[in-house]
Amino acid sequence: QVQLMESGGGSVQAGGSLRLSCTASRHTYSSYSMTWFRQAPGQEERERVACIEDNGTTEYRDSVKGRFTISKGNAKNTVFLQMNSLTPEDTAMYYCASDALCWILPDKYNFWGQGTQVTVSS
């Protein structure tokens, strides 16, 4: 079983920055992606924010392009999400997920963290 743990959430004012971290206990697949999702209050489904594949290829949700950056740490089992120019619309619980590929839909992922809350005030 792969365990994922997120950290780095918090409360900031609009325009501020936060850096989220996700650490995986291990990986089941020989190559894997690590993905950040978020779910705002009242939102039915988690939406994919950013993903990084094993080869370093990244994908971003349109609304965060140019503001968020996903990267891997020196340890292969760690991924970061640097979030700049935050807006109240970024307020959500942020989740880390991992699977073999960068799936768009959350139900494709087998492994999830517990989430870390990000709150952006205006």
The overall strand count is 11
Helix/sheet category = mainly beta
What's the Cα radius of gyration? 13 Å
Estimated share of beta-strand residues: over 45%
How helix-rich are the residues, as a percent range? under 10%
Number of helices: 0
SSE series = EEEEEEEEEEE
Mean pLDDT: 93
Q: Give the terminus-to-terminus CA distance.
A: 40 Å
Regions with little confidence, pLDDT below 50 for 5+ residues: none
Apparent shape: globular
Major β-sheet annotation = 7 strands, mixed
How would you portray this structure in words?
- By secondary structure, the protein is an all-beta fold.
- It has strands spanning 4-7, 10-13, 18-24, 33-39, 47-52, 58-60, 68-72, 78-83, 92-99, 111-112, 116-121.
- The strands form 2 sheets. Strands 2, 4, 5, 6, 9, 10 and 11 form a 7-stranded mixed β-sheet that branches.
- It is 0% helix and 48% strand.
- The termini are far apart.
In short:
The chain has 122 residues and is mostly beta strands. It is built from no helices and 11 strands.
Question: Layout of helices and strands, plus pairs?
Answer:
Elements: E1 4-7, E2 10-13, E3 18-24, E4 33-39, E5 47-52, E6 58-60, E7 68-72, E8 78-83, E9 92-99, E10 111-112, E11 116-121
Parallel strand pairs: 2-11
Antiparallel strand pairs: 1-3, 3-8, 4-5, 4-9, 5-6, 7-8, 9-10, 9-11
Key attributes of the depicted protein:
mainly beta, seven-stranded mixed β-sheet, 11 strands
